Structure formats: C-alpha cells, structure tokens
C-alpha cells in the first residue's frame, strides 16, 4: 500500500475520532437529574427583538466563590435550598 | 492486482470509523438534559388570560401574572414569586419578579445573570440564547435563556431571565423549570413573561 493512500485515510480517521471526542465533551457538561413538569400550550404571534449572538461552544463553567451560604443559608429563600434562582442582584 | 483489495479494506475501515464517530456524536447530543444552542424565542407582550392571578411588587413598579395551576410562594420581602410544586416539594414551574437591586444593565444583562448564578446558586451555568430590545408591557428588556445546576441538590434548571426597564424603574422577571421539562414548560413560562407589566 502506498503512502499516498495511507495519509488521507489516516486523516479521515483522525477527524472522525476528534468529532466524536468533541461531542462527548460538550454533553459531559450537562449531566441532568430532575423531575418532570407539564404545561399548557399557548401560541401567540411574535415580535422580533434584537438577537444577541450566543457563543456556540461556551462551556458550562464553574466558580469557586460562593458568597451566599447554601443549605438554607443567605436569605433563606428557595434558591439557597436547591430551588430555582430568583432575580435578586446578589447584594 | 494485490493493491485493490488492500485499498478497499482501508477505505472500508475509514468509512466505518467515520460512521461510528457520527453515531456517537448524535447519541451524545440527544442525551436527556443536553441543552443545544437555541435561538431566542420572540415575545409578544399581551395581557394574561382572565383566569390568571396577579402579584404586584411591594414597591408597586411591576405586576407578575401567573396561571391558576401555580400558587404564590414566599421569597425575598421586596419580591414576589409563584410556583407549581411536585411531589416532595420539587419545583416544576417557577416565576419570580424582583426590583433591580444592583448593577444590572440591559447591555450586559446576560453576562450579569450568568455571573450572578455562578457566584450564588449554581456550580455551573450555561447561556443558551439572549436578546436585547425585547418588548414588554410598559417597557423594554434584555433577556437571557440559560441553564444551570444548583449547588444544593444538583438540580438542573433552565430559565428565561429578563431585566425590564419601565418608565420609572427596572425589575427582573424569572421563569424557570427543570431542564428536562423545559420544552413542555416553555410556552406557559413565556406566556407569563409576555404578560409581565412594568411601570
């Protein structure tokens, strides 16, 4: 087998392996437990806002700092006990 | 003569490797809880249906509307919240309105919200979509759709969070559900956001 044939084949295999690896890395950032919910369906006509582009590969990042104690800490509302986050400004 | 079978073999191996990679990528992307990038869903500001209930911020600057399947719940004293709770008190749907408290600004709202999540409630937060210049009843807002995993319990929520500027004041509306049920919950949550009234 000539090297002229091996090179493109090897390149294709490498690209395939990289594609699989990237897909796995993205999904690994989204481990997801949670209960289910149902909702009513409503349809309405839409007005177009200005869409801000979202970086396509922005990964879920972590922050080591947490000024609000968790486990019924902080202001003791739902988001300090594993509930959804409210809209306060963290002050 | 002997080169052709070898070439066919190598090509077959390469094709198989490519096919396996494609399948793996597709399967991983389709896993539950995975939130692919999405475009921002436009809002059509409109009054809530007549059977919906209303909560007014204590400072009187905004009104949160919620369907009868939710009930008002306690929260910060300057805010209002409503939720549908499941067995064991888990949150199925969540709405919250809070006056602007800090340095939130329409031009960097998405970054502010994600930073706030990461510094307070979440071990990770990921932006899914964002928009500025979103029309609301009585004002204009900036919105971000994101998902995050809580520090407590490791719960994965998805939300739309909007900073809405009215004539005299600004406030924040949050509409959230578990990420796994976001697709089902989103129409109702967006309906509540579209009904949000600011003054």
Secondary-structure topology with pairs:
The complex is a heterodimer of chains A (91) and B (199).
Chain A: H1 3-28, E1 50-52
Chain B: H1 3-29, E1 53-56, E2 62-66, E3 71-73, E4 80-85, E5 91-99, H2 109-120, E6 122-136, E7 139-150, E8 156-165, E9 170-178, H3 182-194, E10 197-198
Overview of the molecule:
The complex is a heterodimer of chains A (91) and B (199). Chain A has one helix at residues 3-28; one strand at 50-52. The N and C termini of chain A lie far apart (69 Å). Chain A is elongated, with a radius of gyration of 23 Å. By secondary structure, chain A is mainly alpha-helical. Chain B has 199 residues and is an alpha+beta fold. Chain B is built from three helices and ten strands, in the order αβββββαββββαβ. In chain B, the strands form two sheets. Chain B has a seven-stranded antiparallel β-sheet, with helices on both faces. A three-stranded antiparallel β-sheet of chain B has the order 1-2-10. In chain B, a hairpin with a 6-residue loop joins strand 3 and strand 4 (80-85). The termini of chain B are far apart. Mean pLDDT of chain B is 89; it is low at 25-35. Classes of the chains: A mainly alpha (91), B alpha+beta (199). At the A-B interface, helix 1 and strand 1 of A face helix 1, strand 4, strand 5, helix 2 and strand 6 of B. Strand 1 (50-52) of chain A pairs antiparallel with strand 6 (122-136) of chain B.
What is the gist of this entry?
Chain A is mainly alpha-helical. Helices cover 29% and strands 3% of the residues of chain A.
């Amino acid at each position: 087998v000539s090297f002229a044939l091996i090179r493109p084949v090897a390149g294709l295999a490498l690209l395939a392996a990289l594609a699989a690896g990237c897909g796995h890395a993205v999904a690994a950032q989204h481990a997801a437990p949670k209960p289910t919910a149902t909702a009513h369906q409503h349809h309405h006509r839409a007005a177009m806002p200005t869409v801000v582009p979202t970086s396509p590969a922005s990964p879920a990042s972590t922050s080591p700092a947490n000024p609000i104690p968790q486990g019924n800490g902080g202001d003791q509302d739902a988001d300090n006990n594993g509930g959804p986050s409210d809209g306060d400004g963290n002050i | 003569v002997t080169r052709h079978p070898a070439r066919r073999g190598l090509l077959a191996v390469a094709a198989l490797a490519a096919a396996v990679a494609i399948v793996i990528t597709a399967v991983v992307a389709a896993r539950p809880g995975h939130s692919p990038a999405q475009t921002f869903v436009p809002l059509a500001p409109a009054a809530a249906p007549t059977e919906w209930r209303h909560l007014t911020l204590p400072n009187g600057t905004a009104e949160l509307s919620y369907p009868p399947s939710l009930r008002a719940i306690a929260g910060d004293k300057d805010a209002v919240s409503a939720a549908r709770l499941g067995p064991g008190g888990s949150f199925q749907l969540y709405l919250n309105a809070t006056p602007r408290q800090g340095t939130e600004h329409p031009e960097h709202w998405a970054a502010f919200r994600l930073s706030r999540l990461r510094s307070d409630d979440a071990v990770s937060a990921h932006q899914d979509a964002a928009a500025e210049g979103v029309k609301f009843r009585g004002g204009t807002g900036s919105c971000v759709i994101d998902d995050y995993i809580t520090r407590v319990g490791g719960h994965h929520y998805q939300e739309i969070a909007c900073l809405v500027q009215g004539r005299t004041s600004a406030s924040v509306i949050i509409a959230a559900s578990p990420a796994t049920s976001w697709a089902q919950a989103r129409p109702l949550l967006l309906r509540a956001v579209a009904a949000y009234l600011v003054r």
